[in-house]
Amino acid sequence: MLSKFTLWKLSCLLLLFPSVTLSATLPKSTEEILQRLKLDPVILANVESELQVPKDWIERARKEGKVRIFATLEPAQLNTLLAPFKERYPFIAVETAEASREDRAVRTLVAYKSGRIFTDVLEAVGGTFYMFKEENALEDLRSIPTVKNLPEGTKDPEGLWVGTYKLYWCMAYSTRSVRKEDLPKKWEDLLTNPRWRGGNIGLVNRPNLWLLQLWKTKGEKWARDFIARLFSDVKPQLRKEGGSSLLELLAAGEFHAVIPANPARTYQKVSAGAPLGYHCPEPAPASVNEAVILKGATNQYAARLYLNWLLSKEGQIALYAAQRATPVHRDLARKEFIPFADSILGREESFRDPGLETKVLPRLLEVWSDWWSRGGTRLR
After folding, report:
1. Cα 181 to chain centroid, rounded
2. Which whole-number Å values give the CA distances from 49 to 90, 243, 308, 312, in the listed order?
């Protein structure tokens, strides 16, 4: 139940703005999320109208009875995310699986080619998108009502993928070792400031996350020169660990910064007491987590209900609560939904989409892999 004070506030809102509606029967898990994030329930005004879908979708989803999701979240995060969905659609059982993006996408595609479809919703397709497209393996998602809430660039013009949340790929740093005045305003500053040299940067072997965007914005010549100077002059530590492990090593003093780093994951470490900060040189590399529905999947309508909910304000806020993922919903483009917002907002952005991965990534990897194979300060 909503508190008397909250109901009073909502009543006042409705008197002032009669066109605004808000359900007084939000899922209990949604109310708990709003309280935990200290958000006014008014933020979910009109959520019921957002979630309206063709009547036959509900009936068909009820007959299907479940939805299978190949996700990017950890089990605890999925529990937080899915709780409101399960309350709203108790007749849909949710089956989830987790794996690395490459493993998840490639396995799904190989299985699809052999006639086996073992998921309905697939997330983080990235550069494999065009392989699925060539197989005619993807449903058109433009009929999903909440897709209209996504800004241009965060959804496929042909409707074959939608972004579910926004990602930034900049740098995490040790607040014990790095002064704010030493943080690079532009990426070129990493090359000229001596304090970053000699193994003070832990570098991850994932140029697709951040350098693709810089290649796009700055051009191929700039990117080739930047890579060469990064490896030959700065001499970062070349690391094999994943993002979370590197942030733990950063907090332990193994190096002074990690590139690339995600603000949501860094925020989780900071919330647990790690002495870390986050910073975006310009331009700030950005992307979205792409989701698709496989053509021929057995739970088409349950999958559509799930994506429609996930792209609603309620779903986006639940996703933010689960992993501090920045919403793509145009009405939630607000500072409180961007971890380390002061280090990100106001900067020029460079955006990556699946097309960029297909066209540019092979050339980028050729240059990057050559330098990576030569080694850095300490290859781990």
Report:
1. 29
2. 19, 39, 12, 10
